[in-house]
Amino acid sequence: MYKLFRFVLFQFDAEKVHYFVVGLLNKIHRFAPARAIFRMLYVVESPKLATSFLGLNFPNPVGLAAGFDKNAQNIDALADCGFGFIEIGTITPKAQPGNDKPRLFRLKMDQAILNRMGFNNDGVEAAIAQLKARQNKKLIIGGNIGKNKWTPNEEAATDYLLSFEALFPYVDYFVVNVSSPNTPNLRALQEKEPLQDLLLRLQEQNNTKAVSKPILLKIAPDLTNTQIDEIIEIVAFTKIAGLIVANTTISRDQLKTPASEVEKLGAGGISGKPVTTRATELIHYIHQKAEGKIPMIAVGGIHSAQDALDKLDAGATLVQLYTGFIYEGPALVKAINKALLERVQN
């Protein structure tokens, strides 16, 4: 059924379809009988799926990655898809429109998405209003934070600190996004000195709280092993909680979509199956190099239950979906949770 639904949706502009689908999910959620049927179809509930991570108790280890619900507007409806947690954002202190449209494209031959959204969001105060209004208060929420496009890198820490402070009462963990390729010069913040300074300042603020909250760093899949080794050192030095591996890639290698077609689409990060192997390799490398001391959330190219299991086996504790959720639908969430349940029971 979902494949037919997807076939129809994929005939239209990707960004417009996104808003149509989340609107439809919200309508289903508001109509109690439809919501009950939807949850019966897709939600797997079992105490055996409960996962403890960074002091937080997740009902299951399958989450929705940042980028899908940028403004925290659809948390209740998305919870009906069976997710154990949802990461909102990327959120910036001030609202910004993002890059010019069109900016979201499907690479169907690769089961991938190319995006150059550019941190389009309504700003931190709008996100807080939505977080206050949500009905599902038990679902774990992550806050993915970034800088405004016009903020120079040397002042970036101020933006991250503003969002951190404002969101602190309303989210359960934070993600520092310096790895998106769609904000000019943002990835330069992944260099050792600026990254270490940014994370130290966030940790200093975190430590002023009565109870601190986990801060994770989201990294790009395009980093070299030398850069990854530096990231491992930075995590140890700053004592942040862990990593999310990995963001979208700027690589165009080994795509099935003709190069001429990809070139016409322009710049942007690619997510989906082209990232599957690299993300898993990175998780395994970090897990081995850090001797299992860095907690990780896996994201990138999870299109099947086996993809999720591979990432957990490589060293991650939780997984997140985005592109796989678009291509496979909420049945993917159910399939992963069922596979995990079977593994626990066996």
Commentary on this structure:
The protein is an alpha/beta fold. The chain has one domain: TIM Barrel, CATH 3.20.20. The chain has 13 helices and 13 strands. The strands form three sheets. Strands 3-4-7-8-9-10-12-13 form an eight-stranded parallel beta barrel, surrounded by five helices. It is globular. The model has no long low-confidence stretch (mean pLDDT about 95).
Which features does this protein show?
346 residues, alpha/beta, TIM Barrel, 13 strands, globular
What is the CATH topology?
TIM Barrel
What structural category do the secondary elements indicate? alpha/beta
Q: What percentage of residues falls in helices of 4 or more residues?
A: 40-55%
Shape estimate: globular
CATH homology superfamily name: Aldolase class I
Question: What is the count of DSSP helices, taking H or I runs of 4+ residues?
Answer: 13
Mean pLDDT comes to 97
The parts where pLDDT drops under 50 for at least 5 residues are: none
Number of strands: 13
Q: Using only CA atoms, what is the Rg?
A: 19 Å
What share of the residues does DSSP label as strand, in percent? 15-25%
Q: What is the string of helix and strand elements?
A: HHHEEEHEEEHEHEHEHEHEHEHEHH
State the end-to-end distance.
31 Å
Name of the CATH architecture: Alpha-Beta Barrel
Biggest sheet, in brief?
8 strands, parallel, barrel
Q: What is the number of independent domains?
A: 1
Strand order of the largest sheet: 3-4-7-8-9-10-12-13
